[in-house]
Structure prediction request, 516 residues.
Amino acid sequence: MDRQIWIADFGSQYTQLITRRSRELGFSCEMLTVEEIKQRIEAGKYPKALVLSGGPNSIFDDDSDYSYLFKKDDLPILGICYGMQLIGDHFKGTVEEGEKGEYGKTEITFTSDFKIDDCPNSISAWMSHSDHITKLPQGFKTIIKSANNFIVGVKHVTLPILGLQFHPEVEHTQNGALILQHFYKEMAGLTADWSSQTMLQEAMEEVSKVANHKVLCAFSGGVDSLVSAALAHRVLRNNLHCFFVDNGLLRPQDYFHIEELKAETNLQIEIIDAKEIFLNNLKGVSDPEKKRKIIGKTFIDVFESKVHEYQQKFNIKFEYLLQGTLYTDVIESKSPHKKDGKSVVIKSHHNVGGLPEKMNLKLIEPLNLLFKDEVRALGLELSINKKWLFRHPFPGPGLGIRILGKIKSASITKVQQSDQILFEELKHFDVYDKVWQAFTVLLPVKTVGVKGDARAYEEVICLRIVNSSDGMTATWSDLPRDFFNKVSSRITNEVAGVTRVVYDITQKPPGTIEWE
Ligand code: XMP
Prediction:
């Protein structure tokens, strides 16, 4: 399906958000590099509406010719921040380098002849730029002004072109979605064309291309692999095989989850017990990067030998690898600053990176046009159990990166037991769904404590609980005191060899979510 809206990425940290908001409003859209847009326009192709994103540059530092963006008179264009300045520059207004920029929240007011249904005339909006339009571009009128009297919104008098100095896509802008909707519906005349059903239909079409082939899925049981497998199964049926590798670095909840999936879905899931192989390969290794590499390589080796076994034993030769790559992975790997758009390297999932080349498998990625929340919506459309769709993320290397230093069976048990306690109490206090991720980390230090009447000299468990919207940034979660008391007292009482529980109060950045 052709996308109605193209979003030209000039490198703003918010461009992805424009895409998400537009889809939330029900409009199909895609994010493209400026070079991709240029090529399409030169080939005579146009969207129904074009959005020019913000960007970190100043138009004074960029002498590229963007006139091709404005060649088609009736093409509705929305320019946001940097995009508005491009409009200003193209239509011969004056853009000046601001001495006093406007950053963060700013009050803005609509002029009397600009009205959006259900939106007040004065709102708080998010700005992050210092350049601004000082003289109106030709054919434009001012529709929004800031408290400092800057021109922060312009509209062409006859053409469907809108420029906004602030970011309507950012949550801090009140009624930002209404402003976007106004542009799409009233100015561009678009009708909604994006829904869970259209997503499902597209993803099914993608999988249908490989119907009648043997397809393998590296199945972790996480949301992305579950939704892609459930979707693919609708078309492939018995041609889809899911391999779940038990690396021995899983939590009790993961074993329960996979057994539940085996019992309650019609997916063919083979659990490969590779606990010993992983533990042996990791013996004596304490460097985090080495651990990650060993876990990744062992995964590939185990997988490869299983694929070989299938060919020998059952004469099943896999041709495709089903992967739950998301749109975020695809667009994050495009560099907006490289206008040649050639820097596209698809980010491989940690676990399966290297698999397709090594085993000569072609990739099938039915979710690679979707965001995480859309994948969940698709999962609901496929009638996948809600509790499976809203699990916290769990990294490929598993507990291997939550046991600091060397990994021993006894340390795995400590993290498994403490993690299970944390999980149970998150559910018990009804806070599981309020946090992005929550887990325990075993610190390789001993501290003194008292257990019973005796002195104890044992290890430390750290609780890491964070809120985040995408894992890129995170804040530590402020949960009830009773919850922490319960978790701490259960861990020190029930987990042998642990005398102390601490809470990690580090934001990301600078701290990452995982400890290794
Ligand atoms: P960090 O630790 O980088 O984590 O702040 C951000 C998010 O990514 C997850 N994570 C991984 N996921 N393979 C994965 O599949 C990995 O190697 C990996 N490392 C970190 C982490 O759990 C968090 O959600």
Q: What stands out?
A: DSSP finds 15 helices and 20 strands in the chain. The longest strand covers residues 437-451. The pocket of xanthosine-5'-monophosphate is lined by residues 350, 393, 395-397, 437, 471, 508, 512-514 (CB under 6 Å).
